[in-house]
Specification:
Structural class: mainly alpha
Shape: elongated
Order of helices and strands: HHHHHHHHHHH
Distance between the termini: 86 Å
Largest sheet: none
């Protein structure tokens, strides 16, 4: 079955290529035979998993690969979403023309390890290290001004230990500083805002954590109600 589908795709590609050569070209085309081989490149099953799965429907025909608007629509829908690894887009068409921020991001060295994890969590809109324990301590001390309105759940990495938090921040800070050296701080801020949906206040919380965020516990304190033990003696 798979061989028949592949043969049909090859046949359609040959027809479209021949049609392009014999058709009158009154105006120069900006995208001749626009990535007709994209289906063959993306054909392996692994390429349709994760963030590439949405490509399976709009790019189900070779004709779709010749339409730049399809790719631009995919980029538009995928920007500022969690768990997107943009560096996997480097071989895709139209990325250079889509927007300046995406083009600049792809010029940077790919984030790896902990830095990559943090970047892919930014679109959630919350400090990924946030722990409810921070605010429980603030309430106990009568400091209600530090409690944010949107802090209603644990951050993605809240349950990891303090040593891991410190290493994650260090790796992210290193990637961030390299990006600033290459693009400049203002352009990096624009990349965070458009590609990751994160404003500078969130980035600053990760890069320069407050002292209370460094006192992380695995779980919030448990309040144990006093119990009364009644002994019953037999006569």
């Amino acid at each position: 079955m798979a061989e028949q589908i592949l043969s049909l795709l090859l046949y359609l590609i040959l027809i479209l290529t021949a049609f392009w050569f014999i058709s009158p070209q009154k105006k120069p085309r900006s995208h001749p035979t626009y990535h007709l081989a994209c289906l063959l490149e993306d054909a392996p099953e692994s390429s349709l998993k994760g963030q590439f799965y949405p490509l399976a429907t709009p790019l189900a025909t070779p004709i779709a690969c010749t339409v730049p608007q399809v790719w631009r629509g995919f980029y538009q829908q995928s920007l500022a979403k969690p768990d997107i690894n943009y560096w996997q887009w480097r071989s895709m068409p139209e990325k250079e023309q889509f927007c300046r921020e995406l083009r600049e991001l792809l010029q940077l060295n790919p984030a790896r390890g902990y830095a990559k994890e943090i970047l892919e969590s930014l679109a959630l809109g919350q400090d990924p290290f946030y722990h409810l324990y921070w605010d429980l301590k603030a309430i106990a001390n009568g400091n209600f001004n530090t409690i944010g309105a949107n802090k209603i759940a644990y951050g993605r990495f809240a349950q990891r230990d303090l040593r891991t938090h410190q290493q994650m921040r260090k790796d992210f800070r290193q990637w961030h500083l390299q990006a600033c050296q290459q693009l400049g701080k203002e352009r990096v801020k624009a990349v965070y805002r458009l590609c990751y949906g994160a404003d500078w206040s969130l980035i600053a919380q990760i890069l320069y954590p407050s002292p209370r965020s460094l006192a992380v516990r695995k779980s919030p304190p448990i309040l144990i109600a006093p119990t009364i033990v009644i002994k019953v003696f037999r006569r």
